Each structure stands twice: as C-alpha cells, then as structure tokens.
Amino acid sequence: MAVYTQVSDDALAAFLDEYDLGKALSFKGIAEGVENSNYYLETTSGRFILTLFEKRVNADDLPYFIGLKQHLSAKGFPCPQPIMARDGKALRTLEGRPAVIVSFLEGLSPKRPSPAQCRGLGEGLARMHVALSDFPMTRDNSLGPAAWPHLWQGQSEEAAKLQASLPDLIDEALADIAEAKPQSLTLPRGTIHADLFPDNAFFLGEDFSGIIDFYFACTDALAYDLAICLNAWAFDDNPGRGAIDFNYSKGANLIAGYESVRPLEPAERDALPLLARGAALRFFLTRMVDWTSTPEGALVKPKNPLEYAGRLAFHRKVTNAEGYGA
Ligand SMILES: Nc1ncnc2c1ncn2[C@@H]1O[C@H](COP(=O)(O)OP(=O)(O)O)[C@@H](O)[C@H]1O
Ligand SMILES: N[C@@H](CCOP(=O)(O)O)C(=O)O
User: Which of 7, 12, 23, 120 has the least CB density, counted as fewest CB within 10 Å?
Assistant: First the structure.
C-alpha cells in the first residue's frame, strides 16, 4: 500500500482552504503505486488525486513535472492536470512533504494488457512524444547508464540468493552497456515518460484513455521510452512455470502503434535491442535496491527483480528490431 505519509483531518481541511475546490466528501489512501503517497479525494466540486512526494522524487524537479503535465493538458493530451491553489501555485506542502492535487483521470490500468491495448499504448506513447516536442524544460535522466553501476554496488550477494547466476548476468550486462555506450548514440531525443508500465496507462475497454505518473520523466532518447514499454508490456510472466516469454504479437502491435504516429528512424530501430537491454537492467537494479532495502512488514510490497533479469536474458539474444516483431 503506497501511503507512507498519513494526512490528518485538520491538515487536510487547512490544505483545502487554500483551493477553490469546496469541502472534502471522501478521502482515501490508494493501495497501488510504490513511489509516492497517493490519496483519492472527492470534494463538493469533483474528483481528484492528492500526491505527497516521497524518497525518489527530488523536490527541485517538481516544477518540471508540473510544467510537463500542464504542457500536455494544454495540448489536449489525456493526463492528470495540476490544480492551482488560489495563489496560482500547484506545488504546496502538506504534512511536511511537497504535495499537489491533480485531476482524476477516467479509465482502468490493464493487469494483463491485450495485443490491442499494446497497439493503443504505442500510439499513445508516440502522441505524447509529439505533444512534448516543443516542451521547453529539460531534466537529466538520473537513472541512466551512469547510475547503474552505483545501484549494483553491494547487491551481488543478495542477488545470488535470488538466483545463483544473477551476479554474472548483471556484471556481463553492465560491462556490455559500458562498452556500447547507448548515451553516445545520435538518436532523436526529447521528453520521455521513462516509467510507462501498465499501471501508469489507462484504458476504457480496449481504448487508450491516458497516462499518469510522470515522476521519472526526463530528457532522453525517444526510442528508450519505446524500449521500456517493450519490457513492461510485451512479456508474459508465467511464474507458475518459472518462465518469462516475449509475446511477439504484443511487441509487434506496440511498435506498429508507435510508428503509426511517429515512424522510427533506421538508427532507432538498430538501437532497439541495446536500449531494451538497458531498460531491463535499469528496472532490475531499482527493484533489487528496493528488494534489499524495504523493511519486512512494510506497507509496500517490493516488485520482483527476477522478472527483469529474465527480460534482460532475452534481450541479450536479440540482434535486431525484427526480434521484437518490428
Ligand atoms: N490522476 C489520476 N487519476 C486516477 N487515478 C490515479 C491518478 N493518479 C494516480 N491514480 C491512482 O493512484 C495509483 C498510484 O499512482 P502512481 O502515480 O502510479 O503512484 P506512484 O508514483 O506511487 O507509483 C494509480 O495506480 C492509480 O490507481
Ligand atoms: N514501474 C517500476 C516501479 C515504479 O512503480 P510505479 O508504481 O511508480 O509505476 C517497476 O515496475 O519496477
């Protein structure tokens, strides 16, 4: 349950007094999510989400995240819209933490995305890239390749307890990325979401209805966002048989949906296997850190790093974009 910071009734009432949103009718912690504290808030003027920012979000980055959502909303792209308080500011403080209220987005996150939803997601991702192509703010990717060796430091022993072969797989993948230097490729860059997992995309039935959770967004290669989505959307996890299978029709639909809005350049297609390896490594490493640092009995259940080790092993055998159904 991702509620790290409790909000008292008095603190909420004082906070809401700064807005023109009326009185609270309902206020509940949201179980989903792992990064920040999120509350469902219903007031006399509508439905909203209240977020209090926790450990991985740097308060200095918040104007960037808020500006990004304002930019997308102004372009008519479906995403949560930051709500301004009466003083014109969206970013405030609640219970000692930075906090914002955003509009409630309709839709449901798919538990097991269908191939049709993968196509819709690919289209939505490309529409987002296009809508952000004139977003003037920038932010470095703080979880890019330079951060990975640091995340891996001291994790080897715990990783071996999960699977004996893991330390070798990760050491080899890190050495391989250090040599290939994905950051030095000249690929089209722009604003990317960088965490577009199924729990961060909404659908109404099979129709894409929007994107939430922009708190890892940054300036990076656009194709890296697609590579993250290939990892997060196009594999079928079958824990019962200990298998993680790439689903070609999901991968092909994701790429085709993306290219229906923004065709990939040849260099982006060529880079896809390397970017997909990097993306798998990034999520393996942050999951590994959470796996070893989340205290037993905590309200948040850490995500399983092995799912991303399995994806990494798959990508290491892929040599070109056709390997993903492109
Ligand atoms: N704007 C929104 N509209 C509707 N539901 C939302 C919105 N923002 C967050 N949620 C709900 O809260 C959950 C957690 O939000 P998320 O931003 O993913 O949290 P975290 O950053 O902690 O991972 C989502 O899975 C979704 O159910
Ligand atoms: N998507 C990441 C974890 C971040 O979770 P989110 O709830 O903020 O999307 C992962 O799966 O490792």
Answer: 23
